[in-house]
Amino acid sequence: MGDEAVEGEGWSLVRRAEPAPRPVDGAWFGSYISMKNVYGSADGGPYTCSCCGHLTLTVRAAWEICRECGWEDDGQDDHDSSVVRGGPNGPVSLDDERAAYVAEGGVRGDHVPPGPAV
Ligand SMILES: [Zn+2]
Asked: In angstroms, what CA-CA distances link 29 with 15, 64, 76, 85?
């Protein structure tokens, strides 16, 4: 059985006979979730963003997006800031994004990780 066109009132779609290829590389994902992260609970916050250094995060390593610089906090911090993780922040390292933030006119605050990476 092949693809099937389905139409309704004001809409249409194609029901695929085969599932779409999975976009996530299993080897990459295993590597990504094994990385050490800096964590911080909501009880200890707020926290400075590891990218811009502003006090914008309520928790750490919870994929919160910084409202100042747009960095998505997946737990990356000073311990591996040169690494391109390939997670929610795409093909840039934390160091790259820090430099871009300053190049775009941002003023970095003093960032202190709330604890060691674990
Ligand atoms: Zn930020």
From this structure: 28, 19, 15, 10
d(CA 87, ligand 1 centre) in Å: 16
Distance 61 CA to ligand 1 centre (A): 13
Q: Residue 34 Cα, ligand 1 centroid: separation in angstroms?
A: 24
| CB distance 39 to 115 below 8 Å | yes
Give the predicted TM-score (pTM) of the model: 0.78
Domain ranges of the chain: 37-112
Cα(71) to ligand 1 centroid in Å equals 5
Span 68-78, pLDDT tens digits: 999 999 999 99
Ligand 1 centroid – CA 6 distance (Å): 45
- Give 3-state DSSP helix, strand, coil % of the chain, rounded to 5: 20, 20, 60
Q: How far apart are CA 82 and CA 115, in angstroms?
A: 19
Per-residue pLDDT for 19 more than 80?
no
The C-alpha atoms of residue 19 and residue 73 are separated, in whole angstroms, by 31
